[in-house]
């Protein structure tokens, strides 16, 4: 849909991570994507609009997000922020910073799970930000590089061990792997991925995994945190958002191709779930889509 600019990342092959602290009055960097993991902390940014995949949210005074997919678009936009001193600390680290063998060790179990979730973008609650603030606050000014590395590992561990982190982008938009889920859930989700444009019946899904409809509903909600109807809507919206970004089809075509049978209903649900209309969502991405 738009020209893509390839830029050289500032992360050196000789470093475990790259860290930069900025004080700014506005956000001007466009929607972009890169292969490195990125932990982004914002202080004093109330009113800024955060875009991660098909998640569009207005942040408060503090924001902390981990993005970990090499094709997950993201950006922080000015929105309604009036602050004259926005502090931003960005940490980028390579996907091979930890070897697969290391991540399989018991000591890295929580970090492994967090990095997997970060493929969708992961937002941490204020309670977690308060808990790790002292680590983030002093990390850029730590002169001893080895101590800085140890402090960064401690930060990752604290984040991985905290509760309340929230996945941002929908699975159908982020194209994230599902290998860590149970076989029954994987089977159901694969079926939904292939038939979401059709009418999906609860009884058929329940029969697929050998459960009664009522038992399956409880099972699905327990394993996914969402009702089946909510999950189906998110899958449809995720695919619609991906089409808005990657194709030139008009909104009406996308609406019907993604299984919605009413354009006004599609527009209403999209805005309610994503915070913007489909047209405004596309416009955010068309402004400039940059691969970093």
Task: Characterize this entry briefly.
With 292 residues, this protein is an alpha+beta fold.
Description:
With 292 residues, the protein is an alpha+beta fold. It is built from 12 helices and 11 strands. It has helices at residues 100-103, 109-117, 126-138, 145-161, 171-174, 183-195, 202-208, 213-224, 228-246, 251-257, 263-274, 278-286; strands at 18-24, 31-33, 37-43, 49-52, 55-58, 62-67, 74-77, 86-93, 122-123, 166-167, 289-291. Strands 1-8-3-6-9-10 form a 6-stranded antiparallel β-sheet. Helix 2 (109-117) crosses helix 4 (145-161), helix 3 runs antiparallel to helix 4 and helix 7 crosses helix 8. The two termini are 17 Å apart.
Number of DSSP strand runs:
11
Order of helices and strands: EEEEEEEEHHEHHEHHHHHHHHE
* Beta content: 15-25%
Count of helix runs: 12
Cross-sheet strand order for the largest sheet: 1-8-3-6-9-10
Please write out the topology.
Blueprint lengths: L17 E7 L6 E3 L3 E7 L5 E4 L2 E4 L3 E6 L6 E4 L8 E8 L6 H4 L5 H9 L4 E2 L2 H13 L6 H17 L4 E2 L3 H4 L8 H13 L6 H7 L4 H12 L3 H19 L4 H7 L5 H12 L3 H9 L2 E3 L1
Parallel strand pairs: 2-11
Antiparallel strand pairs: 1-8, 3-6, 3-8, 4-5, 4-7, 6-9, 9-10
Helix pairs in contact: 2-4, 3-4, 7-8
Attribute tags:
single chain, 292 residues, alpha+beta, six-stranded antiparallel sheet, 12 helices, 17% strand, globular, disordered N terminus
């Amino acid at each position: 849909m738009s020209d893509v600019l390839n830029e050289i990342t500032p992360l050196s092959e000789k470093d475990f991570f790259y860290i930069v602290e900025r004080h700014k009055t506005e956000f001007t960097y466009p929607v972009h994507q890169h292969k490195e993991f990125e932990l982004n902390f914002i202080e004093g940014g109330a009113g800024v609009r955060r875009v991660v995949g098909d998640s569009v949210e207005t942040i408060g005074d503090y924001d902390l997000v981990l993005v970990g997919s090499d094709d997950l678009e993201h950006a922080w936009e000015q929105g309604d922020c009036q602050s004259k001193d926005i502090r931003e600390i960005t940490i980028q680290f390579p996907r091979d910073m930890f070897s697969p063998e290391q991540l399989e060790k018991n000591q890295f179990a929580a970090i492994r799970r967090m990095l997997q979730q970060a493929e969708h973008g992961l937002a941490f609650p204020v309670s977690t930000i308060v808990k790790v603030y002292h680590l983030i606050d002093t990390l850029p000014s730590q002169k001893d590089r080895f101590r800085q590395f140890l402090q960064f590992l401690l930060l990752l561990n604290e984040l991985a061990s905290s509760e309340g982190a929230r996945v941002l982008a929908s699975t159908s938009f982020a194209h994230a792997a599902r290998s860590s889920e149970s076989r029954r859930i994987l089977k159901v989700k694969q079926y939904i991925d292939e038939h979401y444009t059709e009418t999906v019946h609860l009884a058929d899904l329940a029969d697929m995994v050998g459960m009664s409809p009522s038992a399956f509903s409880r099972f699905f909600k327990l394993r996914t945190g969402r009702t089946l109807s909510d999950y189906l809507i998110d899958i449809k919206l995720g695919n619609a958002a991906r089409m808005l970004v990657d194709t030139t089809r008009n909104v009406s075509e996308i609406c019907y191709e993604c299984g919605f049978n009413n354009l006004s209903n599609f527009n209403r649900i999209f805005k309610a779930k994503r915070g913007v209309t489909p047209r405004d969502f596309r416009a955010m991405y068309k402004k400039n889509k940059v691969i970093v």
